[in-house]
Amino acid sequence: MSTLTTCHRAKNEQEKETKLTLLYIAVAFAFSVAVRLIWYYQFSGYEPFMFNSQFMINTNDGYYFAEGARDILSGVSQKNDLSPIDSAASRLSAFFATVLPFSFETVIFFMPAFLGSLVVVPIILIAKNLKNLEMGLIAALLASIANSYYNRTMIGYYDTDMLNIVLPMFLLWSIIWAIKTNEDKYLLITALDILVYRWWYPQSYSLEFSFFGLILLYALIFDRKNLYNYKLLALMMFAMLNLDGYIRFPLVLAIFYIFKQERFERYIYHILVASLALFFASGGFEPIWALLKLYVFKDAVSISEQGMGLHFYSVMQTIREAGQIPFETFASRISGHIVTFVLSIGGFVYLAYRHKVMLFGLPLIGLGFLASVGGLRFTIYAVPVLAFGVAFLITEIARFMPTNRLKILSMTAFTLAILYPNIAHVREYKVPTVFNADEVKVLDELKNIAQREDYVISWWDYGYPLRYYSDVKTLTDGGKHDGDVNFPVSFMLTNPQQTASKMARLDVEYTEKTFKSSDKNLSIFSNIEQMTKEYGFNDTNDFLLLLQTDMKLPQKSRDIYFYLPFRMLDIYPTVAIFSNINLMNGAVENQLIFYAAKTFKQEQNIVNLGQGILFDLQKKTVTIGKESVPVKRFVQTTYDKDMKLQKNIQLLNHAAAINVVYMSNYNTFLVLDEKTYNSLYIQLMVLEEYDKMLFEEVILTPHAKVYKLKI
User: Fold this and answer.
1) What is the pLDDT of residue 137?
2) Range(s) of the domain holding residue 278
3) pLDDT at residue 254 above 60?
4) DSSP per residue, 445-502
């Protein structure tokens, strides 16, 4: 009778624990989603962030997956349009848009809030394994809204990040439960976690390999004779092979079936060795090394290892999220506050001491700490694991409280204390949409003018939105922006119209030529190298000089448009960097003079533009630092009541080399050298001075301007 009573009591306890687990998951999930709705209510009804009465997303890369989902739903996709119709994010988005009773724009806008909040599930399940559900709830509440995790899974941040932490946390959960229980089902669950993670995020190699290495180390040190560990390692490795998923999935199922048969246990070591051999034979380590070179061993200038060995400026030097960050920012992004971060570190060490399985979270922490050299984008990985640390300290303090009421009060108070800085961050983090409504209206209008095979040239930051809203081709975008691709586009935007127009026709036709050569498996280097060779030069500088002559251009195969937004003024110096380089030796050319002042102060005849730059209205000079130089031109632009641009150009000094432009409607002063003043971007966007033999105006608004190339 006592045995039956004990079993019944144990069953009741288990049911109670399961209900409590589900309750905590529901509470944490609802909290995470609710916090993400703060942005929605802050901007509810704000028209500049809406298009066709729908909120727009607030991340550039999201338009890449939106394009793929759009094309899946429409069933229209052409070869070489680079639409990601096979990507996991696009497919999942198209599925949700099909089964849910909401518009496509609504689906992709809210997806990050709901999918990103799923991170609370593995966190609480891990805590359940450690018999500390309260720790799991606190960790889930903190991790779900910690600064960097919120930033990259907030409402509208439609990108792969909405599952990029959720999936490895599920992988960590399955690994911990596998090691703790040695149950066969977790062998398969772990392998399937890897398959799904790789399907969603193909760059998951490094983290998967880190988990594998740590489990191997654990097995050799703490549990060497346990065959289960080697089964787990072998299945993980087969799931990690650098092969298509449709090959790895049945292979994993076959190996799992073999491991279920006792007669094959003596071959486990052989199978593990075979899996390792296949991993390296399939090129499994190459993607890992490629990512390390991209984010850790990055150089300012990349050198082509083939062909002419041209030198190009590396895009990683210009991406803020890939740059080094100060410690205070690093700590705040992971935990919300430096104090919380320090407590999290100490708490995790203590937690790992009490529960060694938490050491399997080290790969996530390590990848998060890679932010010190790889950039702030990596901090997101350390968030959920370190959240366990401070949550564990809170529950440990509560254990010493004399009454249950004080225990609950202490946990509540400390939890609110660590959540407050993060909620304050959410309230202040008012991220705008990628484009405002007026800019998108230009792209929507362009969609009805340009054909799907036409190219629209702009900087890579705008590539994905251009493809999504205008349904056209682009030369550069958020995934295609290496130095060799950026060089021609930078050259077009920052050089005079005569040379820029020729480069535009050349780069577009050579890009199409590259697609055809790729289909035939022909070796093609950068477009600029192909141009140099085919026009009979061994030095790219000589070829660039040819652009100033009446050279023969490739036959026109499609139309080309230039999209020139006002917002590009903010990044013009960055755009110019990519073509301000000697491709033959990597030497940086003369530094341009470009300064845009949107806040300034006038005292009598002196306009203080900031940063030590003064414009003397009477003497017509500009003082930069301690040097005062004459102004060649002073230009003032304004829009009349019909929104037509009017210009007043005063030529002051033929011999001078500095120009000043006052864009009155934008309340912006520009200080420019002569080359920048004559650049395609300044002439066409700022001044609307275009060569009618080369260009024709298509759409002209204060927010963005579109011109069509005639040659």
Assistant:
1) 98
2) 16-56+102-428
3) yes
4) HHHTTS-TT-EEE--GGGHHHHHHHH--B-S--SSS--HHHHHHHHHHHHS-HHHHHH
Structure-model confidence comparison of residues 705 and 626, the more confident one: 705
Q: Encoding tokens for residue 667? A: 């309340």
Tokens of 67: 């394009």
Which ranges of 562-604 would DSSP assign to H, the alpha helix?
Answer: 572-577
142: in domain: yes
Contact 197, 168 (CB under 8 A): yes
CA pair distance 140, 120, nearest whole angstrom: 5
Token digits for 86? Answer: 């096979």
H/E stretch holding 54: strand 54-55
**Position 709 in a domain:** no
Average of per-residue pLDDT across 610-619: 92
- Mean pLDDT for the chain? 91
* Coil/strand/helix, residue 596: strand
Q: Does the pLDDT at position 323 exceed 60?
A: no
pLDDT at 80: 79
Cα distance between residue 549 and residue 690, in whole Å: 19
Examine residue 618 and state whether it is found in any structural domain, yes or no. Answer: yes
Q: How many CB atoms lie within 10 A of CB 130?
A: 18
- pLDDT tens digits for 267-302? 899 999 999 999 888 876 676 666 555 555 555 555
Phi and psi torsions of 402, nearest 5°:
-70, -25
Distance CA 607, CA 596 (A): 13
By three-state DSSP, how is residue 373 classified?
helix
**Structural contact between residues 668 and 596, judged by C-beta atoms closer than 8 angstroms:** yes
Global pTM value = 0.90
Rounded percentage of the chain residues whose pLDDT exceeds 90 = 78
Instruction: Please state, in angstroms and rounded to a whole number, the distance separating the CA atoms of residues 540 and 531.
Output: 9
How does DSSP classify residue 683?
I
Look at residue 352 and tell me if it is in a domain. yes
Closest C-alpha to 677, from 494, 539, 428, 439: 494
**Among candidate residues 393, 428, 463, the one where a domain is terminated:** 428
d(C-alpha 468, C-alpha 465), whole Å: 5
Number of domains present in the structure of the chain: 2
- Which uninterrupted H or E stretch holds 233? helix 227-240
